[in-house]
């Protein structure tokens, strides 16, 4: 996960580091990584009649808070990007791209744990007036890109990119839940979202500093336009202006989360069929699309119960998060997530906007550069990447790229000069000092102290993601 200097959490990778580059080999082999256990979605019993009781309010608030958590975490991100003109993250409003294409070095201090593999492009769409058409160019076979489309629930509802739609040029369309038209001629695929506001975290592969110009040229060909402009028809009436409430973390962690949830739910109508009963239950404590919320007007006993429910909900999220060291599989579509709102909340806590497991796999190690180590991949256990894989070194606790004499900040299958063994195996050397000139082609320099080595696999081969594990490090002799 990474934080910009203003404290905004955005996604680097949805993972925690699960091994140690030291004497932890035996522990790594004997200990299975904990994963988020299957947790049932909040129950939606028959809605009782009569006034809500404190006990019911507390139980309902707990489930509603867990349900809302990811949405509120996401709101604090996209409000800055699409709404707040004074925020450094501002992308220029809705229906516009903002691209990042630089090759990060240790001198870059604006973003923690920067990713040199795939610079980001951000956009947020307002689909209330009409759908938005997305155009992408053809890319060469060695160029990876992915447009991950996320709704207000933080579900990955659509993918455009080399894995999902191929390397050719294409024109696609994103429509909101209330659009009743048919796919126009010339549109390859129509993606319907459950919410009227959606976003994309788009990633484009970068091979190195010499590749920046090519990445910029490619990003410049990612195009967004209203459907009316694409069809050259009359522009529809604009949607009503929105008063976006400022995000306040204190309110979001109290009964006032209901105000935020009510605001967001107005863009998620009609409710998904699987949530109709749940929404009816939530109405008992004042939750509903666009409903006003004023805690001062709530019966004090019920308000106290709602606040207690919020605390219980946060405790449940914290407890699962503490046991979750592998978030692969916690991100995905509604079908993939199966309405598991607790898992969805934990994923948002770890870092929102993780890729679905079929698009990217994340893992890594905690390390100590004063204890040189080797990571030995057999040919059969090389990262199962359809596109490419990499491992990036970060300092701790600040998580900057590590300044080193050979100016190598990551290593992977695209690293020039990488040497494989005669049997197809691969050794990656990790440490603060050179492992020897004959090994430096496979060396990722590490700081003289604690560090983290983050692994990413882009386009993990089908059938490998559930069972793949990074090899245990061994002390370098």
Structure write-up:
The protein has helices spanning 25-30, 54-82, 212-219, 227-231, 249-252, 257-265, 276-282, 300-323, 334-337, 341-350; strands spanning 2-3, 9-10, 20-21, 98-99, 120-126, 132-136, 145-150, 156-161, 170-175, 189-192, 197-204, 223-226, 360-368, 373-377, 385-395, 410-412, 426-431, 443-445, 450-460, 474-475. By secondary structure, it is an alpha+beta fold. Mean pLDDT is 90; it is low at 1-40. It folds into three domains: 2-27 and 357-475, Domain of unknown function DUF1214, C-terminal domain (Jelly Rolls, Sandwich), CATH 2.60.120.600; 54-79 and 244-346, no CATH class; 114-231, Immunoglobulin-like (Sandwich).
Fill in the CATH topology of the largest domain: Jelly Rolls
Q: Which CATH architecture of the largest domain?
A: Sandwich
Kindly report the average pLDDT value.
Answer: 90
Question: In DSSP terms, counting alpha (H) and pi (I) runs of 4 or more, how many helices?
Answer: 10
Q: Kindly state the percentage of residues in helix.
A: 10-25%
Q: State the low-pLDDT regions, or none.
A: 1-40
The strands making up the biggest β-sheet line up spatially as: 3-13-19-15-16
Gross geometry: globular
Strand-residue fraction? 15-25%
Q: Give the CA-CA distance, first to last residue.
A: 33 Å
CATH class of the largest domain: Mainly Beta
Based on DSSP secondary structure assignment, what is the total number of beta strands?
Answer: 20
Main sheet summary: 5 strands, mixed
What order do the helices and strands follow?
EEEHHEEEEEEEEHEHHHHHHHEEEEEEEE
User: Which structural class is indicated by helix and strand composition?
Assistant: alpha+beta
CATH superfamily caption of the largest domain: Domain of unknown function DUF1214, C-terminal domain
Domains (count): 3
């Amino acid at each position: 996960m990474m934080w910009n200097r203003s404290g905004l959490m955005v996604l680097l990778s949805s993972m925690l580091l699960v091994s140690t580059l030291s004497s932890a080999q035996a522990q790594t082999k004997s200990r299975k990584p904990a994963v988020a256990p299957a947790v049932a979605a909040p129950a939606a019993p028959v809605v009782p009649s009569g006034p809500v009781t404190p006990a019911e309010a507390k139980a309902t608030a707990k489930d509603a808070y867990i349900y809302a958590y990811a949405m509120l975490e996401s709101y604090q991100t996209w409000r800055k990007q699409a709404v707040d003109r004074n925020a450094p993250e501002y992308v220029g409003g809705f229906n516009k791209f903002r691209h990042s294409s630089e090759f990060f070095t240790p001198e870059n201090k604006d973003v923690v744990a920067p990713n040199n593999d795939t610079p980001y492009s951000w956009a947020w769409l307002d689909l209330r007036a009409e759908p938005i058409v997305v155009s992408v160019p053809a890319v060469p076979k060695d160029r990876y890109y992915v447009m991950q489309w996320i709704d207000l629930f933080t579900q990955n509802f659509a993918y455009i990119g080399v894995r999902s739609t191929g390397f050719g040029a294409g024109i696609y369309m994103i429509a909101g839940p209330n659009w009743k038209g048919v796919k126009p001629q010339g549109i390859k695929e129509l993606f319907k979202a459950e919410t009227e506001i959606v976003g994309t975290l788009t990633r484009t592969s970068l091979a190195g500093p010499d590749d920046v110009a090519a990445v910029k040229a490619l990003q410049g060909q990612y195009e967004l336009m209203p459907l009316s402009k694409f069809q050259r028809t009359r522009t529809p009436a604009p949607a009503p202006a929105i008063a976006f409430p400022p995000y306040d973390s204190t309110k979001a962690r109290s009964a006032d989360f209901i105000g935020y949830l009510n605001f967001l739910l107005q863009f998620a109508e009609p409710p998904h069929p699987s949530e109709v009963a749940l929404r009816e239950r939530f109405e008992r404590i004042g939750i509903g699309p666009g409903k006003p919320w004023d805690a001062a007007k709530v019966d004090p006993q019920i308000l106290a119960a709602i606040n207690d429910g919020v605390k219980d909900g946060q405790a449940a999220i914290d407890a699962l998060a503490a046991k979750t060291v592998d978030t692969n599989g916690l991100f995905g579509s509604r079908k993939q997530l199966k309405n598991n709102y607790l898992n969805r909340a934990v994923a948002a806590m770890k870092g929102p906007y993780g890729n679905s497991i079929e698009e990217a796999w994340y893992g890594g190690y905690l390390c100590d550069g004063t204890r040189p180590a080797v990571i030995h991949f057999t040919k059969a256990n090389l990262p199962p990447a359809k596109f490419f894989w990499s491992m990036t070194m970060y300092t701790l606790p600040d998580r900057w790229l590590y300044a080193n004499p050979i100016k190598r900040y990551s290593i992977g299958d695209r690293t020039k000069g990488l040497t494989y063994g005669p049997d197809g195996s691969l050794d990656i050397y990790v440490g603060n000092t050179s492992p020897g000139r004959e090994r430096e082609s496979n060396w990722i320099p590490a700081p003289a102290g604690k560090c983290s080595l983050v692994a990413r696999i882009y386009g993990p081969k089908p059938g490998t993601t559930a069972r793949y594990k990074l090899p245990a490090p061994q002390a370098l002799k």
